[in-house]
Amino acid sequence: MRYFSIYTDTKNPQPLFLDWYNKVKPGRSDYEIYCEIQNHNHFIVDLNKEIQFMDLISHPYFMVSKEFASLIRLYQSQVQFKYATLFDKANQRTAFFQIPNLPEIDCLHKNSEISKDKSEIITGILSKDNIPSFPVFRLGGIKGRYIIANLDFVESAYRREVTGMRMKEFMIK
Questions:
Q1: What's the CA gap between 91 and 62, in Å, rounded?
Q2: Is pTM, for the whole model, over 0.85?
Q3: Where would I find the H helices in the chain?
Q4: Cβ–Cβ under 8 Å, residues 66 and 94
Q5: Residues 3-28: pLDDT tens digits?
Q6: CA atoms of 171 and 173, how far apart (whole Å)
Q7: If we measure between CA atoms, which residue out of 151, 138, 76, 153 comes closest to residue 107?
Q8: How far apart are CA 93 and CA 45, in angstroms?
Q9: d(Cα 76, Cα 136) in Å, to the nearest integer?
Q10: CB-CB contact of 33 with 104 (8 Å)
């Protein structure tokens, strides 16, 4: 049983969402944001023309490409999605992303090392008894956004050559 935090590679710049807070009020939880946004969304973004859109976007919200969404559906068919069209006005290009409503599970072990404001996990330990049977989920009980995936899911993502994804293994107790 191995689990990993998956996140965007910091070497690949993320698009800058220019109109996010016009559509989503700040200070909302991930679930509240998902409920607040429409089924089909259009966002104006800024991304250097030499840089391509990656398969994962983690800020301001977790979004995935069509290929990555297909992988989530393969492993977890009950996950619902909303859609986002990202328009890079300066470079006249469009990218299509999907916004998954991943289940939020509070399974962080009490021995995990967390920042004082509970926004960052320094040493991640998952409680073996509380880990669900979901292959991919959002970690609850913490302010930061952590997407957790099991080894099978992560291996499938790498076999499909998902771009822009990094991972960090969590211990299990």
A1: 23
A2: yes
A3: 20-23, 30-36, 66-75, 151-159
A4: no
A5: 999 999 888 889 999 999 888 888 88
A6: 7
A7: 138
A8: 10
A9: 8
A10: no
